[in-house]
Amino acid sequence: MDHGRELVETEQSVFRAALIDAGLLVDAGVDGLYQRSGAFERVVRGIEAHASRAAAGEGGAQYYFPPLLPRADFEHTGYLRSFPNLLGAIEVFKGGDAEHAELLKAVDGGEDWTARLTPSDITLSSAACHALYPHVPLRIPGSGLRYEVQGYCFRHEPSLDPARMQSFRMHEFVYIGEASAALEHRDRWLQRGLTALSDLGLDVTSEEANDPFFGRAGRMLAANQRATALKFEITCPVSSQDQRTAIASANYHEAHFGEEFGLTTETGGTAHSACFGFGLERIALALFSRHGVASESWPESVRAALWP
Prior knowledge:
Elements: H1 3-21, E1 25-27, E2 34-36, H2 38-54, E3 61-65, E4 68-70, H3 71-77, H4 79-82, E5 89-92, H5 97-108, E6 118-124, E7 139-140, E8 145-154, E9 167-177, H6 179-198, E10 205-209, H7 215-227, E11 231-237, E12 244-254, H8 256-261, E13 264-265, E14 272-279, H9 280-291, H10 300-306
Parallel strand pairs: 3-8, 7-13
Antiparallel strand pairs: 1-2, 4-6, 5-6, 8-9, 9-14, 10-11, 11-12, 12-14
Helix pairs in contact: 2-9
């Protein structure tokens, strides 16, 4: 292991210990899974409200989505093709008394009891906006549609870095309509996001980025995503001062979701979409890293922005 990586992992470990010692996070026993305290959630609620205010009344209809998504809708998102290593599917028990007895026998014998479960028609949601697209009008009006959505997301990437949780929330601002307006939405919200996060005293900057597409074909998709500047991330120090972490992202999806869900514009073309997402837990962690674990001692300007 190189020295730089050792330093980053040490910083992550120290930060994680400080959060747990302060009672902000409780280690749930699985890497990347935590219980959150009331003090932590108070900060998250403040970030939610701060994000909504940044929309200046242009956020659109608000929806709060559960962490579960119908499997049929999930398949249409394309996530299975691009990120199979990160997804999570739900299995359930569908047997009778005999199968239940076999299940308990496996549990008592220390065997893999999950082998006796059956895949359900539900998956864990991987992005907050995925639950939106199946329910928007198939014909998008000329002015486009805007939505403010929030939901729990799941990514199977266990880590001891507290900023890389397996279960986390995104607060997103989505536009669906003409291509030029979708791109303008992405760019305008990138600037709004930088301003909103700077107002919280965070050392933020925007960077061109790509999603962690899976496999050889994924590397080509990632290269194309960067070449066409489809995705930007807002980064700042969180678990490490030497390695910046994405705490928000601005994405232009082109016609991907319009094609998958049959969305068309008034002119008859396939609808394009874009979204900007605030990573609520990561922003909260960035604030604790920047200003300390006691939010009551944060700078007055930060507290006023979160809790006016």
